[in-house]
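Model it.
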Amino acid sequence: MIKNYFKIAIRNLLRDKSFTAINILGLAIGMASCLLILLSIISELGYDSFHDKADRIVRVVFRGSIQGGTMNEAHVMPPVAAALKADYPEVEQATRIRKMGNPKVIYENSAFRDKPAAFADANFFQVFTFPLIQGDPDQALKEPHTIVISASTAQTYFKGENPIGKELLIGDDRDLFTITGVMADMPANSHFHFDLLASMATFPQAKNPSWMVSEFYTYLLLQPGYNYKNLEAKLPQVAEKYMGPQLEEAMGISYNQFKEDGNDIGIFLQPLTSIHLHSDLMGELGPGGDIRYVYISGAIALFMILIASINFINLSTASAGKRAREVGVRKVLGSEKQQLVGQFLAEYTLLSLFALLIAMTLVKLSLPVFNNLAGKDVDIQYFSNLWTVPALLLFGLMVGILAGIYPAFFLSTFKPVSVLKGSFFPGSGSMGKRSFSLRSGLVIFQFAVSVILIIGTIVVYNQLEFIQNKNLGYNKDQVLIFPEVRYLGNNTEVFRQQLLQDSRVASVSISGYLPSGPSFNNNFFLYPDGDVRRQVKTLRYDVDADYIPTLGMELEAGRNFSEAFGSEQTSIILNETAARALNWEEDALGKTLSHLDNEGNQTNYQVIGIVKDFHFRSLHERIFPLVMAKSNSHGAVIARLNTDEPGSLLEDIKLKWNTLAPEEPFEYSFLDERYYQTYQAERRIGYILVVFSGLIIFVACLGLFGLAMFTAKQRNKEIGIRKVLGADVSTIVSMLSREYIKLVLLSAFIAFPISWWLMNQWLEGFAYRIDISIWTYLAAGGLVLLVAWLAVGKEAIKAALANPVKSLRSE
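Modeled.
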């Protein structure tokens, strides 16, 4: 019987080629889009889940609020791991990571500086699942000056030789490390990536007992089945027990007084698998994702498959008259309703499977483009995994059933007496009215989704334009950054002077504190009038006298740093926000601010200037209080250019660099590029919205085109009669397209309030944002209306121009 179902199904699909082509194309695009997005979502949701004990691993993070200034940091103090392991039996293991950057590595006569490195505790491999290809995971990092390298690093350094026991010189001090293990490369879906892991026992600061310094990423392995929330509830005791005494020693006030002043600090826990998508912390080990964009992507995938299925339902019910007599004859010959349902479902499922084959091909062909668009590196191998093909077949069957279940039941309910008398006409009677009402509702849904996505695309684009053109308080154009000034060693000032000798360079500053992209970060607490309880959290920028003019910043009051006033080691410049936080909007100049270091030593600073507020973080965040201090800066060389053609200048600078640091890589970036990179996630979601909203509109219009085609055929004789009676082309076109245009207009008005709420929710993530203009809604509605009319109008005009003699010949 099933064989017979599929044989008849193939005949019916081949009989009506236009119906089949429209449905297969719509379903294939919907399926391919859904599969592509699902691959991306699976990649995002799968971060860090490859660890055998992922469900038991949490990260310890630091959060605090001091006089309204917040601190949210991914790293904590050196002794946290040992304290939690000692005090709480539910903690099986506690391990730490301390970043090293990309240190210089020397092996024999070869030097490398392209591998990220970190110090790690000896029990690192007992917590995380990074298999060792060579070496003992329990012993590899136990001794000082031992190191584990990745398999790709081993190949780069040793070209197939056995690396175990070989020695590497690492860092500017050329510390000697012995290789004790080779680990598999860390997977792409890990929230941190290192190619070199050195033993923490080598790093002196790892034994620092201070709870006032940070920079150690600390992870706990909890007992099986233990709820981390229970441990987190006990952590306020840790802050009071360990931080309290050191805070009192440094600040001269008790922990309770500190809390009574409205301040709060403490450590919290974060599940390992939530770090990538849910973290809002500073100092992450790698770029994170955003769960909001996963939800948006998931919604687009769902809408794509629903809209493709809606096309199928609409076209199937609209063309029901073609199958009415077939149903009547089958029922007269004894077919039961369930047999007819089975026949139609087999037909629709077969069509869905054909669409799935095309979708699988489209996915493979479009993956490179999608990866580039979404910034991903996902892939699918249909036959490499035992479950891939069955899962895809199940997906195809589900889509076929979803799209075909209503048309199957709708067609199987026809009454044989009515259809065999020829009195059945789609759209007449209660059944026809219900069918038309359902089709109208589904068309409204399709185009409402289309309008929402178009509005979303316009809003994202306008917000990105706002970000690009906003006055940032500094001039990001024509600023060249050389990020690794430490490579120059003692030649930094020589390099700076060589740059200034070139007329194409206007000014040069040296500082690791950059207003865009990766930058040094330094919390700095200051208090006025010697009252430590009034301290304000600021960020400290260590700069030189050329920093402000090089970046095109402006002083609101006072003066810049100057060599004419000596070293100025205790002079500071506040931004406007810092002056307001101290209630010094009008009279900050000449005031004194004090700072306590971790040992309780006080340093007094004098305010010499107020710099106008500038955005040194993402526009997602408000401008924070900031302090500039003059010091012997390091980190990066910042050069403002006098030329619009930096190509030849860069070649000359590279020659100078190679002379001063011949073994070091020549690296540079432009400040405006660093700024745009900050909003890469928003740009990618904008690109995705553009592409998939376009596909959704195409699929929706494909269905509308099919409906218009069937309507024109169904009303063929009516059109002929109207033309004979004198109706002109415009009247016929208006008659055929009027109902569909009304539905599209209604869908737009439904979409407007929904899109307003959704996009305002998204914009709330920006401290500085646009207001959504009414023209956004009018543009989106007008665009969808135009595209819909083009889809319907083509068939309407074709029908209106047809010779009425041909349509009436059979009457």
